[in-house]
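Appendix C reproduces, verbatim, an entry submitted by the partner laboratory led by Prof. M.T., so that reviewers can inspect both the input and the predicted structure.
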Amino acid sequence: MTDFVALFPGQGSQSIGMMQNLASNPLVKKTFDEASDILNTNFWDMVNVENTDINQTINTQPLMLAAGIATWRVLEESNINHPSFSAGHSLGEFTALVAAKAFSFESGLHIVKKRAELMQNAVPSDEGAMAAILGLKDSEVINICNNLKEKGVIEAVNFNSPGQVVVAGEKIIINTSLNVFKEAGAKRAIILPVSVPSHCSLMKEAAIEFKEFLSTINFAKPIFPVVQNFEAIPYDDEEKIKEGLFHQLFNPVRWTQTIEFMSEKKLNTFLEIGPGKVLTSLSKRINRDSKNISIDSLESIENFKVIS
């Protein structure tokens, strides 16, 4: 079979009706029911009935974990090989680690719920912000952030693809920075519709508490390598994985480096396992020779089985 990389999306890929094209497989509803029972929240209704709860961080993180694992279980049922590598964008890293059996689905749900609570409470909702900067080099965005840091917290936090970087920090400085980025040549500099300034130093205290929580969870060596966001390399030591998840909370997501790491291993088939096509789009920009498949329907699974 074709060697492939398994990629798991994070927050931002959720939407009402996102599991419809897989829902005929009973594993999907079963996985959502399992998550709902563990966290006492009806996640199935949340993805099938119009509501605003789906976009609340406290719900979105476990919801996306459930969606990714439900999709992964349907794919596994097709008797595919293990991926050569796996990775997940921010929250998606936890889904990848569950898929790789570094910890159980139940533990994963408790972990991401705790993570969401800590992130939401770390900064008052009207004091933090994130913005997408399009059309500048990574180094240019970093330099501008460094030049502005005397005015407040502003950091490059998501290196998503060449020419697409997300910054996060204090709302006032993020808002006033937009014109600075545009004057430097950015094609666009836009505020993102989030209340939590993820992956920046404002999350440091939350990360310390998160680390203490992780110390109570049993981890195991992954059954396939997961390239983690913090250093864009895989860890196989349980304590090292925990350390990486701690650092991930207040350090950048190095997604460009993550895809480049796997591409350098001569891996060019990337499967985005879960809702949306965000990672598929980013992978194409990072590795123009890559073959990208969004696994979000029964048809897409059959298509992958044909080429593999």
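The mean pLDDT is 95. Additional entries are available on request from the coordinating office.
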